[in-house]
Amino acid sequence: MVMPPSFMPAGPQEVLEFYRAISNAVEIPIFIQDTSSAPVSPGLACRIAENALGPLYKSGNLPAPLRVAEMVTGTAGKLTVFGGQA
Asked: Could you report the per-residue pLDDT of 44-69, keeping only the tens digit for each?
């Protein structure tokens, strides 16, 4: 489970390259961890899924049911979407 960089502003291309680098370094599926401090749009999640192992997505944003529904609809079945709040 990997959250996008949140300590410095990162644009969509940088986030995509971040996930691509991690995917190239490991041999296990990667969860895209979406949080309020590092949100991932449905469009960006699809681009990551095309370029990284997985594709798995977990929303940590509130309200979780709304965000999960948005990702399921917005990614048109390209991701396995999980929801939850730690």
From this structure: 988 888 877 666 777 776 667 787 88
Closest among 82, 28, 29, 30 to 60, alpha carbons compared: 82
Cis bond before residue 5 (omega within 30° of 0): no
Domain ranges for the chain, please list them.
Answer: 12-83
Asked whether the beta carbons of 32 and 44 are under 8 A apart, the reply is no
β-pair type (80-83, 56-59): parallel
The Cα 35–Cα 64 span in angstroms is: 10
> How far apart, in whole angstroms, are the C-alpha atoms of residue 41 and residue 59?
11
Closest CA to 18 of 48, 60, 54, 58: 48
43 secondary structure, DSSP code:
H
The pTM for the full model equals: 0.81
